[in-house]
Each structure stands twice: as structure tokens, then as C-alpha cells.
Amino acid sequence: MPEDGFFSTYVDDSPGGGTWISGDEKEKLIESGDAFDITAVDIDPGDKYGERFVLDVVLAGEARKIGFQTGTVDSRDRMLGAMAEFLAANAGSQVRAKLAASGRSTLVTAA
Length: 111
Fold this sequence. Notes:
The chain has a six-stranded mixed beta sheet. The protein has one domain. It has helices at about 5-10, 25-30, 75-90, and strands at about 20, 35-45, 50-60, 60-70, 95-100, 105-110. Helix content is about 30%, strand content about 40%.
């Protein structure tokens, strides 16, 4: 069997598939102020860490995903809930955003 046998057949069955933006990448996005487009926001019931928002984003021309646990930052939860409704009601729309730090929290803000 070829060395990459597993990865050549593995299919990501997480909600919507996609490549996740890591915690380190989030930190770099905060530091750089680089903007990205959000194309969808969904709620994932989660696993052992609980419910989370899952954002479908386009970063540097690549489809990616970024997650934020619910119930930890009220203002972010309200904004992402409203953004989910906006994107669902406006097919094909995107929201241009960036990440920002506020204390120990990560926020999604206008780019």
C-alpha cells in the first residue's frame, strides 16, 4: 500500500468538510489584520467541547472553516446568529470580515 494510502481515500465527514483554520492561524490573522469572506454560518452541535458556530470562509482564495464555541462571548454569539440569518436570507452574499482580540476573546469584526 502506498505511504499516503490513508489520506488518498479519507473523506472528511465533518459538517460541510473543508480545511479548518487552526488556533495558531487565528492568532496570525489577528496579528496581520488580514480580511476574509464569510459565505455561511452554521451551528454545529459539537462533541465533547459543546456547541459551536462554524463559519465557511474564503481565505487567500481557499475555502476554509473556522469555529467559535457558543456561550463564551455573548456579543459574538448575537452577531454570528444575526449573520447566519442574513447569509441564509441573501443567497450568494458574503460578509467581509477580520479577526480581532478583545482581552482573551477572539471577535469577528468588519474588515
